[in-house]
Amino acid sequence: MKSRAPATEWGRKAADLYQPDYARRYRQHDDALAVHDECGAYTAFAGWLHEICTTFPQPIDVLDLGCGTGRYFSALTNVRTIAGIDASSAMLSEARQPMHQDRMPTSAMTLVEGDFLTYDFGADRFDFVYSVGVLAEHTPLDTPIVGRVARWLRRGGRFAFTTVHPESPSIPRTAGRSLGRIFLPFTSGAIRSQLRTRLLSHGLYADEARIRELVEPAFVIESMTRMISEAHLHALCVARKAA
Question: What's the CA gap between 163 and 138, in Å, rounded?
Answer without folding.
Answer: 10
